Give the backbone structure.
Amino acid sequence: MDRPDGFKNNTKSPSIIPTTLSKTGRYTALVESENGCSYSLSTELKSKNYVPVLTDFVQEICQSGEVVSLPENVDGFDGQWLGNGIKVINGTNYFIPDSLKGLQLLTFLPKEDGRCVSPLEQKIFM
């Protein structure tokens, strides 16, 4: 019988909290009646990665614009920023627009912590 993440079906009203990939899979519960009849019920639990939400972020910046401090925590996820113009100064991520032109794609890469999360892409036009 399939039992992802140590699932046991001998508990009344068992719960599956899908916070990590290890909890995905096929779960089967077997019920036996007093007269010896048995029934089984199965369900498939799939995981879809969450994409963090970035609020109050500048969409347009001048080439000679000021340096923008980027958050190290986005929507409850710690991570780092990648892309043109990204500099890390004293452990803080900054976007420095000097000499950049056109559309710039910044990526927030969440740290691995067991939760299912995808990178966030942020477009900025210079």
